Amino acid sequence: IAAKCACDTSDDVMIYSDDNEEKAIIEFMNWYVSKGFNQIIGWNVDFDFAFLIRKCMKYRIPAQQLQASKIYDLMNAIRTGKEKYQYSNNPKKRLNYVLKDLLGLYRPIEDLDAMKYFAKGSREQFIELDKYHVMGTYLLYILFKGTIETQFTLTTEEQQLIGGIKEGEFTKHI
Questions:
Q1: Of 42-51, 74-83, 126-135, which one has max mean pLDDT?
Q2: Mapping DSSP to helix (H, G, I), strand (E, B) and coil, where does residue 3 land?
Q3: By the 8 A CB rule, do 69 and 32 touch?
Q4: By Cβ atoms counted within 10 A, which residue in 23, 32, 110, 125 is the most buried?
Q5: How confident is the prediction for the chain on average, in pLDDT?
Q6: 80-113: b (≥16 Cβ within 10 Å) or e
Q7: 72 and 45 in contact (C-beta within 8 Å)?
Q8: Structural contact between residues 95 and 44, judged by C-beta atoms closer than 8 angstroms
Q9: What pLDDT is attached to residue 27?
């Protein structure tokens, strides 16, 4: 599981990975609850939310705070806008294409290659891809936030992150 606190402008991405799936889920849930989160923001986050709820049910892990969270799915928000208002060369609405289109970002490794490494027992490439997806989604959230808030201003840290993208420096953050 890869996650990031949207209120934290650092490029820190939390990784919860273990050979023992139950342990990884418990560690993630402990982090989520300890932070007092009440929102989940992500790309195709309905899938992630359903996955987490199923795993909590399987391992009998309390998930009341997760269940009560408000969900913001950036894929649905962007897909709806793109379908209604512009032509798109991204028929699958994949995150990688949106990150390239809106932010000029390229993934560090292809999905299939990362899965091959993971199948061979190497998690590092898969984790790097997860970090890219989480940070990319975070940056999309920063941009999206500006379209839904009437009094929107970027923090200094957010301005630096977005500025880094414009200058082609984002890869150093991943």
A1: 42-51
A2: strand
A3: no
A4: 32
A5: 78
A6: eeeeeeeebeeeebebbebbeeebebebeeeeee
A7: yes
A8: yes
A9: 95
List the beta bridge partners of residue 15: 2
Closest CA to 164 of 145, 131, 138, 125: 138
Contact 13, 3 (CB under 8 A): yes
Tokens 């309390």 sit on residue: 62
> Is 90 within 8 Å of 101 (Cβ atoms)?
yes
Q: 9 or 140: which carries more pLDDT confidence?
A: 140
For residue 170, what are the contacts with CB-CB under 8 A and spacing of at least 6?
A: 103, 105, 139, 161, 164
Q: Please, are residues 40 and 70 in contact by the beta-carbon 8 Å criterion?
A: yes
CB-CB contact of 32 with 7 (8 Å): no
Task: List, in sequence order, every residue forming a beta bridge with 38; answer none if it has no partner.
Answer: none
pLDDT of residue 55: 94
For residue 170 the two structure tokens come to 């984002």
DSSP state at residue 94:
-
Residue type, 147: T
Give residue for tokens 């940056």. Answer: 139
Q: Give just the sign of the alpha carbon dihedral 161, 163, 165, 170.
A: negative
